[in-house]
Design a protein that fits this description.
It contains 6 helices and 14 strands. With 396 residues, it is of the alpha+beta class. Strand 11 and strand 12 form a beta hairpin. The longest helix has 57 residues.
Length: 396
C-alpha cells in the first residue's frame, strides 16, 4: 500500500485547508424585567377587571330606572286652520307664504259686492219697518178717536130713545118713532164694541201700546236681526289672523271658497312644547315638574332644557280614528304609548324651533333603585331611630 492511501498519513502539501464552521448562537434568555411587568399587568387585570365589571354593572343597575329616553317625540305648537265663513271668490291676498303675521292682520279678502247689496236691502227693510210702526201708531190714535166718537153717539142715541119712550107713554108720539130710536141706540152700542176690538188689534200690532219704543217692536227686531246678519257677513269677507304666527298654504287670488272649508294655516311661533310618546311601562316614576334634556335631530350636539308639564289622561290609541278592538279573539298585548307634554325653555338667542321636528327626550325621574337583597344582607344594619335616641339620652 502506498503512503498516499495509508491511513493516518498526512495530506499532501497541495491539498486545500478546511474552512472553520461558525458557532451557532445560543437562544436569547428572557429579561427578568419584562417577565415581572407581565406578571404585574396580569395580576392587575385579574384584580381590577372584576371590580370594573361590578362598578359598571352597579352603575347601570342603579341608573337604569332613573333616566328614561325616547325618540318618539316631536315639537308641537298651536296650529289654526283658517276657513272662510262666507262663500265667494278671493279678491285679494294680503300675506305671502311663510310670512310672519300678527293677530288681526288681514290674510285675504273675499269679493264683498253681493254682501254690500244685502246690507243695503236689510237697511231698507229696517226703514220700512220704522214707517210701518209709525203707521200703526197713527191707526191706533185714529181708532181711539173713533171709539170716543162712538161712545158720544151711543150716549146721544140713548137719551133720544129715553125721551121718545117717555113721550110714547103719554101718547104724544108714535110707536114707530120709538122703535127707530131704539134701533139707532143699539147700532151705536155695537159701534162701540167694534171700535174697541179694532183698538185691541192696533195695540197688538204695536206690541202692547203706542208708547212702546221702536227698538222693542217685534217687527223692528226681526228686521234689525236681518240687517245685523248681513253686516256680519260683510265683515266676514275680510279674514284676519287669529294669533301671531307664520302663514302657510296661502291661497291665490280668484280661488273660490266655501263656508267652513279650510283655506290656509297659521302656525304659532312661540309657546312651543314637546310631545313625547313613552311606553306605559316607562312612566312608573314620571311626574310633573321633573327636569328633561331635549336634543333635536336638526341641531346635533345642541341640548335644550325643559320640564314635564303634564301627562295625558289617555293613550294615543284612544284618539285614533279606528281604535283597537281588544275584545276580538286575535288579541295581542302591545305596550301602549302615552303622550307626555314637555315645556321647553327657549332663550332669546336660541336656535329656532319648528313644528314637527323630531326630538330625543330624556327625563330625569330622580328614582334610585334599591340595592339587591343579598347586598342589603351583607351591609351592616343601622340602629332604629328610637334606639339611637334612647342611647343618646342614656349617654347624657
Amino acid at each position: 500500500m502506498s503512503e498516499e492511501n495509508r491511513p493516518g498519513s498526512a495530506a499532501p502539501a497541495s491539498a486545500p485547508a478546511a474552512q472553520p464552521v461558525p458557532p451557532v448562537p445560543a437562544a436569547t434568555a428572557p429579561r427578568p424585567a419584562s417577565g415581572a411587568r407581565r406578571k404585574i399587568v396580569r395580576r392587575s387585570l385579574l384584580t381590577l377587571g372584576p371590580v370594573a365589571v361590578v362598578v359598571v354593572g352597579g352603575y347601570f343597575y342603579f341608573m337604569s330606572g332613573r333616566f328614561i329616553e325616547t325618540d318618539n317625540a316631536y315639537v308641537k305648537a298651536d296650529v289654526a286652520i283658517v276657513a272662510a265663513q262666507v262663500a265667494g271668490p278671493i279678491s285679494n291676498v294680503g300675506v305671502r307664504e311663510n310670512q310672519r303675521v300678527k293677530q288681526g292682520d288681514i290674510l285675504f279678502t273675499i269679493d264683498d259686492r253681493s254682501f254690500q247689496v244685502a246690507v243695503q236691502r236689510a237697511h231698507a227693510q229696517l226703514g220700512a219697518i220704522n214707517d210701518l210702526v209709525e203707521s200703526f201708531r197713527a191707526g191706533y190714535r185714529q181708532t181711539t178717536e173713533q171709539l170716543a166718537l162712538a161712545r158720544t153717539t151711543a150716549a146721544y142715541q140713548q137719551r133720544e130713545y129715553d125721551r121718545l119712550a117717555e113721550l110714547a107713554k103719554r101718547k104724544l108720539t108714535s110707536d114707530v118713532a120709538v122703535d127707530d130710536a131704539r134701533q139707532k141706540r143699539d147700532v151705536a152700542n155695537q159701534e162701540i164694541q167694534v171700535t174697541e176690538r179694532a183698538l185691541e188689534a192696533a195695540r197688538a200690532r204695536l206690541g202692547g201700546g203706542p208708547d212702546r219704543p221702536l227698538t222693542e217692536q217685534a217687527a223692528y227686531q226681526a228686521a234689525k236681526s236681518m240687517f245685523d246678519a248681513a253686516a256680519l257677513d260683510l265683515e266676514h269677507t275680510v279674514v284676519r289672523a287669529p294669533f301671531d304666527g307664520i302663514a302657510s298654504k296661502v291661497p291665490t287670488v280668484g280661488q273660490y271658497v266655501a263656508p267652513g272649508a279650510p283655506i290656509m294655516s297659521i302656525v304659532s311661533d312661540h309657546d312651543m312644547w314637546i310631545e313625547a310618546n313613552y311606553k306605559e311601562t316607562e312612566l312608573t316614576h314620571v311626574a310633573a315638574g321633573q327636569p328633561v334634556d331635549i336634543e333635536l335631530d336638526t341641531y346635533p350636539g345642541r341640548t335644550w332644557r325643559g320640564s314635564v308639564e303634564s301627562i295625558s289622561q289617555a293613550t294615543g290609541a284612544e284618539f285614533s280614528v279606528i281604535p283597537a278592538q281588544n275584545a276580538t279573539g286575535n288579541w295581542v298585548k302591545v305596550a301602549q304609548r302615552i303622550p307626555v307634554r314637555i315645556a321647553v325653555q327657549v332663550g332669546a338667542n336660541d336656535l329656532e324651533l319648528r313644528v314637527g321636528m323630531s326630538a330625543i327626550v330624556t327625563i330625569d325621574t330622580g328614582y334610585e333603585r334599591p340595592a339587591p337583597a343579598i347586598v342589603r344582607a351583607l351591609l351592616p344594619k343601622r340602629p332604629a331611630p328610637r334606639l339611637v335616641q334612647s342611647l343618646s339620652s342614656a349617654r347624657d
